[in-house]
Design goal:
Layout lengths: L5 E2 L17 E7 L5 E5 L3 E4 L6 E3 L10 E6 L2 E6 L6 E3 L2 E2 L10 E3 L5 E4 L12 E6 L7 E6 L6 E5 L11 E2 L10 E8 L2 E5 L8 E2 L2 E2 L4 E2 L4 E5 L2 E6 L2 E6 L7 E12 L2 E13 L4 E6 L5 H9 L5 E6 L2 E2 L4 H4 L3 E4 L11 H12 L6 H14 L15 H13 L5 E5 L7 H15 L4 E5 L12 E7 L6 E8 H8 L4 H8 L10 H12 L2
Parallel strand pairs: 4-5, 14-15, 26-31, 26-32, 29-30, 30-31
Antiparallel strand pairs: 1-13, 2-3, 2-12, 4-6, 6-7, 7-10, 8-9, 8-11, 11-12, 13-23, 14-16, 16-17, 17-20, 18-19, 18-21, 21-22, 22-23, 24-25, 24-27, 27-28, 32-33
Helix pairs in contact: 3-4, 3-5, 5-6, 7-8
Length: about 525
């Protein structure tokens, strides 16, 4: 297997000042056979032929002078077509009023594929133009390539080396992790390549559409499996894994138990998952499943039997040091009523920020957090005069002032109406977009479901009376897994019948365990 290492580059004149911004999204530009180029995007920008202020120049005959626009929205970017001539495809669907009715600006999801064509789909190989959208910019992400040999009839996209010989698998231990043994199969018949899902846990996506059967590949198709993107072009697979392992949160709880009247009572058991920086994760669970127990164990506040790591640092072993890097907002706030908002944050900064930080830097941090949490206009208001939503945002700001890398919140929207709760969750989304890990328990998940990256579903086994992992993955995948169209419907599936549920906790615990073991 021949492999070439390449780093994403910048087009001439790209705005390099935004390359370090944790709020940047990323476009990977693919034009013909040219080297891939990765560009950070932080603000509205027009996609066109010429590189100039407010424009991203794309050197292709398939790109019009003012082809389209990326528009920054609350939770990412949207694409706006500026031509109206059938020149752009989003995930193989023509961008048109018929296909996207009433949507002048189409929100983009991580892994979306924009394809530009001005030649009726007859573009030559040197002009084919594809843009890959990633929600977060990862600096120095590497692209590797594998040249596909048509005499090798099948390639396994895999992470385990168990085969040798002519059907040797495509395996990269250092690039692809936390995935099943075989999770995609490439086959070649008569010089034509096809792709199929090998019964994976979360699916194989082609141009961001989940495939359910063997599907032909065409030039410049994009495959997504987990966080890994593969570009199929010129007889090769080029691939990049958006790895954030340096600060990835790895959770392995073998057991969390307590002693009650000299008897051991197990609360949680056998929970394994990983969370990447920049992800906002929902903790969802049935009654008594151990949601608060889970976050207390992960924070190190109540240690479990197991291992909790951030990158290569063990939280349990280094708790006295790392507890200052962990933010926690409980259900009830502990604010002093007769302080102003600014004084509250100033006191928190004095206690939580390094003593070596000068006064101007501390003030700048306070102003930054006030802006992030939407509290600038209230900074001189007394805490007792704040609304319920403003108090909750201030409680979050008090914890976030120290810039923690891990942020836990137990029902932060409790007692808030729908609009206030939604606004609060949008603030938490902004925190996650600062490359933080945000973990939230809420009893009203559907009003902000689109803001979460993933969901942890805990269920209390009726057989053992112990909280277990019933699912971990993306929101839409969770709904599909539980066969419901809402997150609250998931809770109904796993709650006991005497609690108004379907009593299926053990069925889904077993189903997910079987998926994990594949």
């Amino acid at each position: 297997m021949t492999e070439e290492m390449r780093n994403g580059g910048y087009p001439e004149g790209a705005e390099k000042q935004s390359r370090h911004s944790s709020l940047a999204a990323k476009l990977v530009i693919c034009v013909g056979k040219a080297q891939l180029q990765a560009v950070p995007v932080t603000d509205d920008i027009i996609l066109g032929q010429e590189q100039k202020d407010g424009y991203l120049g794309i050197p292709s005959g398939n790109v019009m002078p003012d082809h389209g626009r990326l528009v920054r929205q609350e939770n990412g970017f949207a694409y706006e077509d500026l031509q109206g001539k059938g020149c752009t495809y989003l995930n193989d669907l023509l961008v048109s009023p018929e296909n996207f009715p009433g949507m002048k600006q189409i929100p983009l999801s991580d892994g979306d594929v924009l394809r530009f064509e001005t030649s009726g789909g007859t573009s030559g190989p040197e002009e084919r133009t594809v843009l890959l959208y990633r929600r977060r910019y990862v600096e120095n992400a590497q692209w590797r390539e594998l040249k596909l040999d048509q005499n090798t009839s099948r390639y396994y996209i895999s992470r385990h080396e168990e085969k040798t010989g002519p059907e040797e698998a495509f395996r990269e231990e250092s690039v692809i992790t936390e995935l099943p043994r075989h999770y995609g199969i490439l086959s070649c018949v008569g010089g034509k390549w096809t792709l199929r899902d090998n019964n994976t846990r979360h699916g194989v996506y082609l141009n961001n559409h989940k495939i359910s059967e063997e599907t032909p590949l065409k030039e410049m198709d994009v495959i997504r499996i987990g966080d890994t993107l593969f570009l199929f072009r010129d007889g090769k697979l080029e691939y990049s894994h958006e790895e954030s392992a340096q600060n990835r949160l790895s959770i392995h709880i073998e057991e969390r138990s307590v002693w009650d009247f000299f008897r051991k009572k197990i609360l949680l058991e056998d929970i394994r998952l990983t969370i990447d920086p920049g992800e906002m994760v929902l903790i969802l669970g049935g009654s008594g499943a151990g949601k608060t127990t889970f976050i207390n164990a992960v924070m190190g506040y109540e240690k479990a039997k197991g291992t909790i790591k951030e990158g290569d640092r063990d939280i349990y072993r280094n708790y006295n040091q790392m507890k200052y890097e962990i933010g926690f907002v409980p259900q009830q706030d502990l604010l002093r009523e007769d302080d102003t908002v600014y004084d509250t944050l100033d006191n928190a900064a004095e206690m939580k920020l390094p003593v070596s930080l000068d006064k101007d830097s501390r003030k700048a941090r306070i102003e930054q957090v006030l802006e992030l949490m939407g509290l600038e206009r209230e900074k001189d208001s007394l805490v007792e005069k704040l609304s319920g939503g403003q108090r909750r945002r201030l409680s979050i700001a008090v914890e976030f002032i120290a810039d923690p890398s891990l942020f836990f919140l137990d029902e932060p929207d409790s007692g808030l109406d729908g609009i206030m709760a939604r606004t609060l969750m949008e603030n938490l989304r902004r925190i996650a977009d600062e490359n933080k890990i945000v973990i939230v328990i809420t009893h009203s998940p559907d009003r902000a479901a689109d803001l979460f990256d993933k969901v942890v579903v805990l269920a209390k086994s009726q057989e053992s009376n112990v909280g277990r992992l019933a699912f971990y993955g993306m929101i839409d995948e969770a709904k599909e897994f539980f066969g419901t169209d809402s997150l609250e419907g998931i809770v109904k599936r796993i709650n006991r019948e005497d609690e108004g549920g379907d009593g299926l906790a053990d069925e889904f615990i077993k189903k997910y365990k079987e998926l994990e073991e594949k």
